[in-house]
Design a protein that fits this description.
CATH topology of the largest domain: Glucose Permease (Domain IIA)
Number of strands: 13
Largest sheet: 9 strands, antiparallel
Radius of gyration: 19 Å
CATH class of the largest domain: Mainly Beta
CATH superfamily of the largest domain: Glucose Permease (Domain IIA)
CATH architecture of the largest domain: Distorted Sandwich
Number of helices: 5
Distance between the termini: 28 Å
């Protein structure tokens, strides 16, 4: 196995720095404004940091059952979500069935739609690995889908607030599982109240742990998953992975689907 680069400190300094800068200007406090600007710059540098962990891919199973489509896949680019922050370097999103095709291209109306109009909402989500649950979030609301141009504007505005509040608000309802080799798997954007495990529970790959939702920073019901070197999202470095027990539309084994490619699990 190649050596992993050390995880760098990545906490939501950007939002804190922005708030401090504005507050310093409002109250006419140069020291506060200067400190805020410094935090903002440091936060941006850390948030958009350069550097990719080099390690042998971890084998995991898809956290879903049935037919889904891959989005923001590391098969297309790394970092897959455009950022290394919050352990997202190799993260993948999966959308259920025809949800993506049925709602493209983006429209102007309606601005938002009920989450339960999407077939993915409420679909069972399973553990991608064997291990021990170390963290659970289960109380965040499932908001309406933002699959329109006005909806996207609202989504980005909400994202600023979520960023200031920290990673848990970006991930929505989620589960973190410690694997036997001390790596960690994260599954996010789960339906409120659906999480069926608690910290300390032992789980096996394929075991139901919740349902697909639309909580956190999510435009439509989907599942986000990633592998990390530690359980603290703000400090974690993302690790590469490959999928087992997944096939393409022709039934051939599929280790890492590209964006918009269908997978069957």
């Amino acid at each position: 196995m190649t050596t992993r680069l050390p995880a760098r400190l990545r906490i939501p300094l950007t939002g804190t720095g922005l708030v401090a800068t504005i507050l310093g200007l409002v109250v006419d406090s140069s020291p506060l404004a200067f400190a805020g600007a410094a935090l903002l710059v440091v936060g941006l540098l850390l948030y958009f940091r350069v550097g990719t962990v080099r390690a042998r891919p971890v084998a995991i199973r898809p956290p879903v059952r049935g037919c889904w489509s891959a989005l923001n896949s590391p098969a297309d680019k790394v970092p897959s979500h455009g950022l290394h922050a919050y352990g997202q370097t190799y993260a993948m999103d999966l959308v259920h069935g025809s949800d993506l095709a049925d709602h493209e291209p983006l429209s102007w109306w309606p601005p938002t739609q009920p989450a339960d109009r999407f077939s993915g909402f409420g679909q069972p989500i399973v553990a991608p690995v064997d291990g021990t649950v170390v963290h659970v979030e289960n109380r965040q609301r499932d908001h309406r889908a933002r699959m329109s141009w006005p909806g996207l504007a609202l989504f980005f505005a909400e994202g600023t607030v979520r960023e200031i509040a920290g990673p848990r608000r970006l991930l929505g309802n989620h589960v973190v599982i410690e694997m036997p080799d001390s790596d960690f798997a994260l599954v996010a954007h789960l339906r409120r109240g659906s999480v069926a495990v608690e910290p300390g529970d032992r789980v096996t790959a394929g075991q139901p742990i919740g349902e697909c939702g639309n909580s956190g920073s999510s435009t439509m019901p989907h599942v986000h998953f990633q592998v990390m070197d530690r359980p603290q999202i703000a400090l974690a470095a993302g690790l590469p992975f490959t999928l087992t027990d997944a096939t393409d539309a022709e039934g051939r084994p599929l280790a890492l689907p590209a964006g918009r490619q269908a997978i069957h699990a």
